[in-house]
């Protein structure tokens, strides 16, 4: 978050991750006989079609003739079709009713593999939902399995009777028993018990921490790893759910070019609404039915100048479906030229160190889009020929090789949406959330071009996003306030003459005013229709700095009545650790969205769907603490997961990296005792149900968690080794949001202090190995300093050595590799030139050319950028990145300090499949490790080899900023000695 100085996975990772039962062979591998056949099961209850057809094309082959193959009844609510794929190993599929109504996965088609495949309300899984578990004369075991916390949309039981063989992975599909419970009755012959594990059909398993579950005959429940034998039917007291949800209301459809955003208010249900069905008619493609989990749907790739009609139904867990909503009709416009969409890289984000840039201040690739704005002269920027909007996407594309040469494989960029304020170069004053700010784009260097260029180099783009607030002028397409203004002798300099044919975009100069920051569309002397601002146009009794008369409604304010409560909150924050900090304005420049309102939720979800579709790799979430956690967990985080899953698949969704800024600027574990305002709090799901109304639920959650206090919060061992062993992390209660490590950040005035503070909080984070760790940023230095870090080169080297080897994802603010602007005030708004601040233009240090084909090494460099790359911290950083990239334990490993002496010494291990990486690390000081595995350890810094035969290894102090990384059966020395690593 940036303030002017006037004022301050729906797709869960599963209970125990992507690991099948320990004694099961080769999961998810089809047998040779079935390798080229697919039996596709389709769920019919919610569609209620009289007939269902499978229209498909084997991978690399031709599509069947429309409507395709008629599917046959498989069991209650399911139909099926078995297809011979020949030599193909999968198929593309859509479904229809034979009369022109289609389910094509929202235009993406369904990508299906081989074997048994289910498609249920848009969710693909793998099992036979109609398989008979056996109800013959043998012993019976009835198993109920709870998915209430995991959020799985289907469940399979994979089992072996005692003394018998395991079922073929993924096992048998369980039947929905009641809300949150699945059931299967199994015939286990003469056995009196069975071993079992559960999965969601897509490779996510609950195998009881690799121990599997032991289940006897009779009725057994399995809930959150607790096995209850001889159990009562958990659904016995629950009446069958036969009540349908209410009909969705206020359905709207808005077109931009050939794309339409459909949104509606949430429906209600006696249990819970789980899905919505959006039906589109119009055009030449027939009727389309799409299942979505949120209350907004972005429909793209439509025909030009064509009328489309949308209706929406709500669906509950029992498959009860509401009547269709009222119709919303919209006509598309002309098709705008659109670059090809990108595809996220989709790999574990912990592998990717992050370089953070303010795009407008990094490198100027195209001077034609430079803009100074209304504060150009006042700020002193004009005197320096340094417009606030100077850097751009073209400049970033041009210098991706510089970032790669440093060793970074992820770039965090400031918000890209069109901004509108007096000083908006940083991007946090969003105005049109559906439009990329043209001051950042150029011909051949659009935002899409940047994403594609980064991906081509194996680099990720993390987009900074803002859900909490808009600019003071509101959000275009949602609500924009009209202010009072009179163009008299006092104010004509400020209020631009109206130009009905001109639309503000921040870049284009309006011909009447000669300004790119035109405001003629924002004000009116006549009171507008529907005005709610109190005392419209009446003098306040005050005067401006110039002595001009001030009027009511002349300036946006939450308490003026100018902003309707449907769209914006209507108060100022009074207590930064109170409930009001989640429901009031931070600053006059940051109009606080009513994020508990469906129209606002729909607007933001629809906007950020656009950027997900472009292939960004993750979101850095600004001001996350100022939105209730329950709103994140109910609305925004599931919407992100759903969209990524739909467009790019479950694996891409699992690795789509969301990390939030939870501004806890204190040195204690819990932010002044308030759990609701502590960073780690946002990594967890909710622990109870709250009111269906989001605003009420936010208050209920705040009160409930504050009353429980800090001592009753969930804990996790996900970041910690068990002795010397890596264990499969439990992400069942993960919210979907990771965090910036604010506690380490606040304590980085000294590396050891940051290290000790970081460790102290890790048990309260769902998985601290995903924490984003940095020393300073565009907002603050350590200890909430207003200046960029100035601890000295040796201290920087020590900080980097710690960040690049300790748990978490190391992140560097642009220029810190040469101590750029050290000690300078980070931000002073327009009261001083940007060139004197921590947000100064960096491009002068990047002039010249640089190429890099691998991370952490420049192939060639000339000009000033060659000088930059020759600086001591750059050399240090490059080698750290090469070492970290070569040792998996330093990327994704859990850690422990058990049996270790040393100020900053720890052991880390990561085990996955054939990978087993174990490293012993000490930063600056000496260390002794006891109780470690025997074997040969090689130091990645010096190449030194130590053979351990008695479980003990002692390492002398390497010196400040230096470190030792002894890796069991490791590769030895990585890179060449430098100024610190030697």
From TrEMBL:
Positions with biased composition (Polar residues): 319-332
InterPro entries: CBM25, FN3_dom, FN3_sf, GH, GH13_cat_dom, Ig-like_fold
Signal peptide: 1-21
Transmembrane segments: none
Keywords: Carbohydrate metabolism, Glycosidase, Hydrolase, Metal-binding, Polysaccharide degradation, Signal
Region (Disordered): 227-250, 319-349
Cofactor: Ca(2+)
Family annotation (PROSITE patterns): FN3
Identification of the protein by name: Carbohydrate binding domain-containing protein
